[in-house]
Amino acid sequence: MNDVAYQNAYLLMTPGPLSTTEGVRRAMLRDWCTWDDDYKEITQDIRSRLIQLGKCTPDNYTAVLLQGSGTYVVEAVLTTVLDKQGKLLILENGAYGQRMATIAETAQIPYDICRFGELNPVDPQLVAARLDADPSITHVAFVHCETTTGMVNPLQEIIQVIKQRERYAIVDAMSSFGGMQISIEGLNIDYLISSANKCIQGVPGFGFVIANKDALDQCKGRARSHSLDLYDQWRVMEDHDGKWRFTSPTHVVHAFHQALLELQAEGGIPARESRYMENQKRLVKGMTAAGFSALLPAAQQSPIITSFHYPSGDFSFDKFYESLKSRGYVIYPGKLTEQATFRIGTIGDIHPDDIDAFVRVVSELNWLKC
Predict the structure, then answer these.
(1) 3.40.50.720, 3.60.20.30, 3.40.640.10, 3.30.200.20: CATH of 22-264
(2) pLDDT for res 1
(3) Main-chain dihedrals φ then ψ at residue 243, nearest 5 degrees
């Protein structure tokens, strides 16, 4: 079993923050000056590597890093890219799509929301019908991997519908980028959003946007926030060789750079996706053998996180959680509003042998008394 569980007291089987490697943690032991050229070079190398990971050409796409959690970056995009004549359509099938609606409501961005329910993927044909019925919609935003359930939405089909109707596409790929292959330029995505502490396996502290340069270049003066002005953040990084507008999380940035190097050493996104998929496959097999059932059918399931039904009406998640934690594993509570579930992540520095050890512990627990 991977010894990270012992080094850190427990293995984080969550959708992020997640268990990191010793190399990533060691990268945070050095202090950095935000103005120093060496540090700015790290920022520039990160930006370049993100463009490559997204299968983009630097002539057409750029990467912008922004302090804060993933939600900060979602808010930066939504409050920067729509002008006063713009209207946003949000495709929602979970808590994180609903969070976009909360951001739009708070920022007074004109928006509409197309709800599909927590247990249904986004239907591209319904999206097409909504766009055809409302020509005032200029931008469409949705979550690729909705970690409310673990569902993966049909990215290519949704983007095709959006771009055929000449709307801007905003993709929250918080829990998928780096762990699932996405050709950003090939799909013609305008803005893809993710975070340092997800599938690239860094630590929390900043997020990033991979943006179409032509689309972002039109956003000058649109931002509804000073700190979250994505356009200004981009221009400062472009014009000052990787400088951040405000104080950046230097230790986190260096850890993320190390995580990118480790992703490359692993074999890139294809190899990492393969590992995550094997993790998830073994998890479902082992949990099923232990008496649990997965919430979603395999065709809708991402390799990132899996929801499981409570096995009985008197099942106590809290007791189950504490029993697992005392044995070196931390899992996630459910986020569904209508069904009793809990979630188990299969990303981070977790390997198939770790999953095998985890399901053995689950099978040995007297969970019926939990």
Answers:
(1) 3.40.640.10
(2) 42
(3) -75, 140
Q: Where are the domains of the chain?
A: 4-20+268-369, 22-264
Question: How far is 141 from 170, CA to CA, in rounded Å?
Answer: 5
Q: Report the CATH fold assignment for 4-20+268-369.
A: Aspartate Aminotransferase, domain 1 (3.90.1150)
Regions of the chain with pLDDT less than 50: 1-6
Distance CA 214, CA 190 (A): 9
Taking residue 313's Cβ as centre, other Cβ atoms within 10 Å add up to 6
> 149: which 2 tokens?
């359930």
> What confidence tens digit (pLDDT) does each residue in 84-100 have?
999 999 999 999 999 99
pLDDT recorded at residue 293? 96
- Is residue 137 within 8 A of residue 87, CB to CB? The reply is yes
Which pTM value belongs to this model? 0.95
Q: Where are the alpha helices (DSSP H) in 54-94?
A: 70-81
CA 124 to CA 159: how far, in whole Å?
A: 9
